[in-house]
Amino acid sequence: MCGIVGYVGPRPSTDILLSGLARLEYRGYDSAGIAVIDDAGELGMRKRAGKLGILREDLARAPISDGTTGIGHTRWATHGGPTDGNAHPHLADEGKLAVIHNGIIENFAALKAELVSEGYDFVSETDTEVAAVLLGREYRANGADLEAAFRATVSRLDGAFTLLALHREHPGLVVGARRNSPLVIGLGEGENFLGSDVAAFVEHTRSALAIGQDQIVAITPGGVRVTDFDGDPVEVEPFEVTWDATAAEKGGWSSFMAKEVSEEPEAVANTIRGRISDGAVAIPELDGLDDLFRDIDRILVIACGTAAYAGQVGKYALEQWARVPVDVELAHEFRYRDPVLSPRTLVVSISQSGETMDTLMAVKYASERGARTLSICNTQGATIPRESDAIVYTHAGPEVAVASTKAFVAQITALYLLALHIGSVRGELTAVESAQHVRELEAIPAKIQRILDREQEHTTQLAHWMADTRSVLFLGRHVGFPIALEGALKLKEISYIHAEGFAAGELKHGPIALIEPGQPVFVIVPSPRESSQLHDKVVSNIQEIRARGARVIVVAEEGDAAVLPFADEVLRIPLAGPLFEPLLAVVPLHIFAMGLATAKGLDVDQPRNLAKSVTVE
Ligand code: M6R
After folding, report:
1. Which positions of the chain have pLDDT values less than 50?
2. Are residues 215 and 254 in the same domain?
3. Domain boundary among 246, 264, 294
4. Can you give the residue range of the structural domain that contains 481?
5. What is the whole-number distance in angstroms between the Cα of residue 254 and the centre of ligand 1?
6. What is the pLDDT of residue 335?
7. Nearest in space to 403 (alpha carbons), one of 570, 547, 605
8. What's the CATH number where 75 sits?
9. Which ligand 1 atom is nearest residue 402's CA?
């Protein structure tokens, strides 16, 4: 949840740390701080509650003495509220040592009691300060050897952590460690970096190393040493970051969310690119796995939040095209109920960040119990793909706004490609059927673009009219149901309005009691061209709520005239096959949520209480 950056090299580090933190601020933004060893060997530290801008202003008013070794942190509070005192870095060893941390140290209370009994004082409520004080003690006990002290410290910690530390007696050295929490190395010329993700240093270098679980890294201007927690050297995987710094910048848009919604067509197109050959799906990352796909008897999709809704959409395609039974489960529920798993179960995890702790733990749990695992992920070098047997990357580009938008459509796209691939391998789809679905999928980016071009203004206007609304309901059926859930989540998340999504058929089993005059209800209407008659059933649902005074906003296919007599507003989407409608119907819902939050004057990129990457359980 927190963002971490470290730097050693020839350049003054304060600006490098602050610009790294600006790119990581999506990970947490309730306080920020930096610590720097200056050229005279003194340790300077500044930290402030509130967004990074407050720390920046403070440093501009009263700079700390700059130097070429530094660490920086942006926080999402776990232990202790968002105050100056609880912000990171935390100091120890009489102010000579600074530590920053992401994660939760589960045994912090026992360690704190031990240290208090030895006479150590604490000034914050955080678990991080316990790690700092412990490191200070170990530093003295290990003859002022920072790396040895670090090894001794991390071996005492339970839970999830990325820790970085520096000591004024060791200018030009930053040490870091990770367990179940992200940390990557950026390799520069005569300088090196550490970051929670590559965004921390991508403006300086695109050469990166992914650190594994339970490993320690020491960076100096001239080199990088990675060991395990026992101090034995380990090989680390190099990778090249495929996007540049501009991809993670606003580039003239009013918000990252606005930019990312505008990139939805590209996110779908880029996820398809390179995976179609002669009209058939060919996913190079899955070469050699045909036997596995033939052998599985069940697919279990695990994910959280928006990624789980993508999974729910994917279930329809996987079952229809690959004819494999699919269950979709929230990752945080999955491993606490003794699930039935076997080597014939394929567990497909979906995560934009690749770091969501609940999903990571569920993947590990499934692997330990013999299931095969496949990760759908948007972030190179992230932990979940590295813990999985196979990976299909979504190529949505960096997603910075907390509300996931372009990653959602990319996740559905990746699931559809996977479903077509498994369906073909298992002989459930003919080449002709597969080619037809591929053509439909390839047409989606242009159709999303048409919605952005034609409906954005109307949808945003509608959102502005509804700025005072206190509650919004969303109804959908079949693949429209997860889209209703996604529409509601997006609205809650960024506009703080009560919103709920329902399966339209469930309405009469309870939720219809919520309808009172004026209640806004979005209804995602299936195509009238479908043979299932779902369209007519949903139109009946609309009449039922209309009769009770609901204000109905329908998302309906272009040309669907049957909805007109019952709709207060109509948001149009282009024609598409039934399984492809979700990729279109979600777009006006993303625009609406963004428009409403903007109309309320809220920060759409950094909504309260949330963080982009949820790396605690
Ligand atoms: O990084 P992940 O895809 O694993 O994140 C999962 C959820 O935390 C995420 O989708 C969350 O629900 C979004 N903020 C919703 O917009």
Report:
1. none
2. no
3. 246
4. 448-607
5. 22
6. 87
7. 605
8. 3.60.20.10
9. 14
Backbone φ and ψ of 303, nearest 5°: -175, 175
pLDDT for residue 245? 77
Mode of pairing for the β-strands spanning 192-195 and 3-8: antiparallel
- Alpha carbon distance 476, 526 (integer Å): 8
- Any ligand 1 atom below 6 A from CB of 305: yes
Give the pLDDT confidence score for residue 324 in this predicted structure. Answer: 97
Whether residue 443 is contained in a domain is answered as no
Same domain, 491 and 583: yes
Answer yes or no: are the C-beta atoms of 318 and 364 closer than 8 Å. Answer: no
286 CA distance to ligand 1 centroid (A)?
25
Answer whether 156's CB lies under 8 Å from 149's CB. no
Q: Return the pLDDT at 452.
A: 97
Write the residue with the smallest CA distance to atom 4 of ligand 1: 351
**Residue 410 near ligand 1, beta carbon < 6 Å:** no
Same domain assignment for residues 471 and 508? yes
Ligand 1: residue of 361, 614, 616 to mutate (most ligand atoms within 8 A of CB) is: 614
Query: Quick check: CB of 352 below 6 Å from ligand 1?
Result: yes
DSSP 3-state assignment of 606? coil
Q: Please give the helix or strand (H or E) that residue 72 lies within, else none.
A: strand 69-75
Question: Residue 205: CB within 6 Å of ligand 1?
Answer: no
Q: Is residue 204 part of a domain?
A: yes
Q: Do 397 and 458 lie in a common domain? A: no
Same domain, yes or no: 257 and 241: no
Whether residues 44 and 176 fall in one domain: yes
196 within a domain of the structure (yes/no): yes
Of 197, 222, 246, the one marking the end of a domain is 246
CA pair distance 332, 349, nearest whole angstrom: 12
Residue with the smallest CA separation from ligand 1 atom 16 is: 403
Q: What is the pLDDT of residue 616?
A: 76
Question: Widest CA span of the chain, in angstroms?
Answer: 81
The DSSP bridge partners found for residue 175 are 165, 218
Residue nearest ligand 1's atom 9 by CA: 305
Identify the residue whose C-alpha is closest to ligand 1 atom 11. 305
Measured between alpha carbons, how far is residue 269 from residues 244, 321, 411, 441 in Å? Answer: 19, 21, 12, 9
Q: What is the pLDDT of residues 438-481, one digit of tens each?
A: 999 999 999 999 999 999 999 999 999 999 999 999 999 999 99
Residues 270 and 156 in one domain: no
CA of 219 to the centre of ligand 1 (A): 32
Q: Residue 261: which CATH number?
A: 3.40.50.10490
Ligand 1 lined by 611 (C-beta under 6 Å): no
Angle CA 574–578–584, to nearest 5:
40
Total count of domains within the chain: 3
Q: Are residues 42 and 121 in the same domain?
A: yes
Residues catalogued as catalytic: 2, 612
| Ligand 1 and 356: CB distance under 6 A | yes
Global confidence as pTM = 0.86
Q: Whose CA is nearest to atom 12 of ligand 1?
A: 305
Ligand 1 site, residue 403, Cβ cutoff 6 A: yes
* Contact of 72 with 18, CB cutoff 8 Å: yes
Ligand 1 contacts CB of residue 55 (under 6 A): no
Q: Is 85 exposed, middle or buried (0-12, 13-18, 19+ CB in 10 A)?
A: middle
